[in-house]
């Protein structure tokens, strides 16, 4: 819930930059640049684009990525070693 609340604040700021000063009563969590419904095919294209790029990563590569993300989030070396 905290992540979604933070996203809601970021989304409001981003939409304001695009000229939308008021969110809809039932605002979508993810919307397009016109503050409308995001077509499911759009996310499928994003995933396919990412999938094409990660084919070359072996399983151990995900471990390194995970550790990097933990460090970026503020975890200490000891926390990453234990986790």
**Structural shape:** flat
| Rg measurement, Å | 18 Å
- Integer count of domains: 2
- What letter string, H or E per element, gives the SSE order? HHHH
Which ranges are low-confidence, i.e. pLDDT below 50, for 5 or more consecutive residues?
Answer: none
> SS-based structural class?
mainly alpha
Q: What does this entry look like structurally?
A:
It is a single chain. The protein has 83 residues and is mostly helical. It folds into two domains: 1-36, no CATH class; 39-83, no CATH class. Helix content is 61%, strand content 0%. The protein is built from four helices and no strands. The protein has helices at residues 2-17, 40-54, 59-72, 77-82. The chain is flat. The two termini are 23 Å apart. 0% of the residues are buried. The model has no long low-confidence stretch (mean pLDDT 82).
Q: What labels describe this entry?
A:
83 residues, mainly alpha, 4 helices
Outline the fold blueprint.
Blueprint: H1 2-17, H2 40-54, H3 59-72, H4 77-82
Concise overview:
The protein has 83 residues and is mainly α.
């Amino acid at each position: 819930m905290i992540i979604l609340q933070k996203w809601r604040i970021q989304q409001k700021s981003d939409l304001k930059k695009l000229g939308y000063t008021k969110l809809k009563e039932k605002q979508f969590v993810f919307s397009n640049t016109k503050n409308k419904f995001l077509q499911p095919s759009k996310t499928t294209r994003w995933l396919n684009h990412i999938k094409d790029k990660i084919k070359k990563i072996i399983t151990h590569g995900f471990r390194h990525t995970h550790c990097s993300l933990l460090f970026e989030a503020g975890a200490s070396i000891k926390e990453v070693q234990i986790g």
